């Protein structure tokens, strides 16, 4: 049976399970350690909640681009990125500590490259956060089935609480829409760069789910 927790969360869960047991046993000699045992147990429960990995029924329509992350639409804008030849529609998704923090592939395609950039840990709402914060870019080229091939970027951005970006894919990997491609620990943001001919289906303030919510539709 699959445990619905991301593998990268097990180390944190084990730490707090261990602390819970140690503090509880020590509480036999010093009663105040029972309180620490309770705190560790609550933190262990939070880690189970934060690193949860629920099953998702993925939308497979080739013309639809799905959300790469759970969260709230923070901004939608047009922007030119150094790794793309033309202006893109950029959809910014803010992920609170209460959201599922696993990222998924928005399309079927091949990973052209990934690029990690160390940086700061500014709050996601600051305009400079998407350039100065720790981040990882995943460039995916579509397979071009039924439409002309195109490139998109999924940018994983660390937030004020995040200190670790995890990427589960690499150059030349073949991705299926909805496939898990990464994780950001403890609060974050994901930016999705799409071609201009993609009709955006969300608006600022909308809540989305990775693999389930439709972000855009490819126009001919």
Structure description:
This protein is of the alpha+beta class and 220 residues long. It has 2 domains: 7-50; 64-218, Glucose Permease (Domain IIA) (Distorted Sandwich). Helix content is 18%, strand content 35%. The chain is built from 3 helices and 14 strands. The chain has helices at residues 10-26, 32-50, 129-132, and strands at residues 64-66, 71-80, 87-95, 102-104, 109-117, 135-142, 151-158, 165-167, 174-175, 180-184, 188-195, 198-200, 207-208, 214-218. The strands form 3 sheets. Strands 9-5-6-7-11-3-2-13 form an 8-stranded antiparallel beta sheet. Strand 6 and strand 7 (151-158) form a beta hairpin. Helix 1 packs antiparallel against helix 2. The longest helix has 19 residues, at 32-50.
**Strand residue content:** 35-45%
Total of domains: 2
Number of strands: 14
User: Can you give the mean pLDDT?
Assistant: 88
Contiguous uncertain segments of 5+ residues: none
Instruction: Give the overall shape, derived from the CA principal axes.
Output: elongated
Please summarize the sheet with the most strands.
8 strands, antiparallel
For the terminal residues, how far apart are their CA atoms? 43 Å
Q: Which CATH C-level class of the largest domain is it?
A: Mainly Beta
Helices and strands, in N-to-C order? HHEEEEEHEEEEEEEEE
* Helix count from the secondary structure assignment: 3
């Amino acid at each position: 049976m699959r445990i619905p927790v991301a593998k990268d969360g097990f180390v944190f869960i084990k730490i707090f399970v261990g602390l819970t047991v140690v503090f509880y046993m020590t509480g036999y000699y010093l009663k105040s350690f029972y309180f620490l045992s309770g705190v560790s147990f609550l933190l262990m429960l939070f880690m189970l909640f934060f690193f949860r990995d629920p099953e998702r029924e993925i939308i497979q329509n080739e013309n639809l681009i799905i959300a790469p992350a759970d969260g709230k639409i923070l901004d939608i804008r047009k922007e030119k990125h150094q790794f793309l030849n033309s202006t893109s529609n950029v959809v910014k998704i803010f992920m609170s500590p209460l959201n599922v923090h696993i990222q998924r592939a928005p399309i079927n395609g091949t990973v052209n490259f990934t690029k990690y950039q160390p940086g700061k840990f500014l709050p996601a709402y600051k305009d400079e956060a998407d350039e100065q914060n720790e981040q990882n870019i995943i460039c995916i080229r579509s397979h071009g089935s039924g439409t002309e091939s195109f490139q998109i970027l999924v940018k994983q951005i660390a937030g004020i609480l995040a200190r670790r970006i995890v990427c589960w894919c690499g150059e030349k990997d073949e991705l299926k829409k909805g496939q898990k491609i990464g994780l950001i620990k403890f609060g974050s943001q994901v930016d999705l760069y799409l071609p201009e001919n993609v009709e955006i289906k969300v608006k600022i303030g909308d809540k989305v789910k990775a693999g389930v919510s439709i972000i855009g539709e490819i126009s001919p």
